[in-house]
Please model this.
Amino acid sequence: MKVRNQNEEGEKIELQMTPMIDIVFQLLVFFIMTFKIVSQEGDFNIKMPLVAPAAGTPDDLQLPPMQVRLRAGTSGQLAAVTLNDKTFAIPGWEEALRLDIIGVIGDERGPGSIQETAEVELDCDYGLRYEHVIQAISAVSGYRDDAGNIVKLVEKVKFAPPRQAGE
Model:
């Protein structure tokens, strides 16, 4: 029985290396030629103006900064609440703060209103209990009206770095 496709003479089959090396060098040349060196990030040639332009009239929609300061007592309970320089009594401070915020931003709602640009910064003592921070966020961000609808006040609330009580 004779098997087909069998080398009877015992010739050794060799792979041709020259075409493979040619292809490797062609690929190497291709990648070297198409390589783009990217300029270093942050290397900008910026020419800044020497003198700042004169400050114009303030925008009507620009609000004064609203900073709510929450001071903690020795056990982490709320000791004092102030909005800018106005201090609120501890019992009922949430409603008084909410009414003061409404007085600053007004009643107008919707696109283009002052309410969109209003921002409150909460400055809390380090040892203040978390529940008081949540109460302050709730007081400045909105409330439910008599019909049960949610009325939004300030949507941008940021935090100042925490500090120790008494600072």
Notes: Residues 1 and 97 are 104 Å apart (CA to CA). Residues 69-159 form one domain. The chain is about 30% helix and 20% strand.
